[in-house]
Fold this protein.
Amino acid sequence: MRNNSNRFAVQALRRTLVTMLAGILGIGASHVALAQAPRVIELTQVPCQFLESEGADHGYTSRSIKDCEAINARTANQRVAKSKPLELKPGKYLFRVANKNVPYELGFWLRGASAAGRITLPSVSGGGILAGGKRDYEIELKPGNYLYSCPLNTTPDYRLVVK
């Protein structure tokens, strides 16, 4: 019960501070609220796949990128066909990508799904996620069709729709 009381007190204090800041800046409180932290999307990589994207750990083992290239050459099309696209609304997001038991460095690449989308839609990428580690990738998504994957872990291209 005490934790709920504390949480409600913190939320009330936050609303009061937003209202005060809006008054000082001479803008509506809704504009200040929009500047709040981005929504966090957590994604976990295991060998050759993102867990959340496929809904199950297929139990693949990989010691190098070549292992995943061979596995995905045989299985990626069927796995992606069964997966549901990640659907989000436009706005600021923080993709928190974790490396769960992959013995080499991983990364993340989010980009437009088509050639035109790669030019007109925002993208984010990077590496450096060691076994047991996490890395955050911040992006403001616009409406459109995206793909995300890990080129270092050679995952399939998973779909993301922003509308």
About this structure: Confidence is low (pLDDT under 50) at residues 1-5.
